[in-house]
Amino acid sequence: CEDCGKSLIGECKLHGPLIRAKDRVIPSRARLTLPHYLTLRVLELRAGNQQILGVFAKKVIQKRTQFGPYVGQLSTKLTCYDESRLVLQVLKDGGKYFLDTPNEDCGNWMMFVRLARNQEEQTLVAYQHCGEVYFTTVKPIEPHTELKVWYAADYAKFMEASAVFIKEESDVSPLPPVAKEPVDPWICSSCGSTFATFALLESHQCIHKDRV
């Protein structure tokens, strides 16, 4: 204590505790990469102050606007899985890898985009190009509208998932009729859990192998 000149364990009983000054909170890498015409909104607050976030437009975003590439760590299995986000994989040097984002300092803002549950709310398609994943708008996005994504047709085949498609204008190529919502056809033979894509099942089975 500089007032009484004593070295103490804990606070000084005579002069009290020190006034603590906290560092300024710095946004994560992912939040800093958010384009100026997009914003993050807290949609839900879960136990442990876990925030469920969504990406919303602040102004009109034109159709055929491309975002990306998606920034994540290449991994042979997922370490972070969120059922409201897309699972993404890419081909690199002949191998198939997950684009994993264990925390906000390892990715960019695209990690916050939630998946579309049906064709009405889908505004983006995800696809692979030159070993990277990009999102492109499939229709104009109005202000205050949430950006939601699903796989493009070819990428859905690569991910072994169902396809959600937009049939809005005549210049959109028609796709075969499919279910509006992703299905859960992949079942783990070890524990019976179901998964929306084969990639998720594959990552889940790695956990059983690790335990063995």
TrEMBL record:
<feature type="domain" description="SET">
    <location>
        <begin position="38"/>
        <end position="152"/>
    </location>
</feature>
<keyword id="KW-0862">Zinc</keyword>
<dbReference type="Pfam" id="PF21549">
    <property type="entry name" value="PRDM2_PR"/>
</dbReference>
<keyword id="KW-0805">Transcription regulation</keyword>
<dbReference type="InterPro" id="IPR013087">
    <property type="entry name" value="Znf_C2H2_type"/>
</dbReference>
<dbReference type="InterPro" id="IPR050331">
    <property type="entry name" value="Zinc_finger"/>
</dbReference>
<keyword id="KW-0863">Zinc-finger</keyword>
<dbReference type="InterPro" id="IPR001214">
    <property type="entry name" value="SET_dom"/>
</dbReference>
<keyword id="KW-0479">Metal-binding</keyword>
<dbReference type="GO" id="GO:0005634">
    <property type="term" value="C:nucleus"/>
</dbReference>
<dbReference type="GO" id="GO:0008270">
    <property type="term" value="F:zinc ion binding"/>
</dbReference>
<dbReference type="InterPro" id="IPR046341">
    <property type="entry name" value="SET_dom_sf"/>
</dbReference>
<keyword id="KW-0804">Transcription</keyword>
<dbReference type="GO" id="GO:0010468">
    <property type="term" value="P:regulation of gene expression"/>
</dbReference>
<protein>
    <submittedName>
        <fullName>PRD15 protein</fullName>
    </submittedName>
</protein>
<feature type="domain" description="C2H2-type">
    <location>
        <begin position="186"/>
        <end position="212"/>
    </location>
</feature>
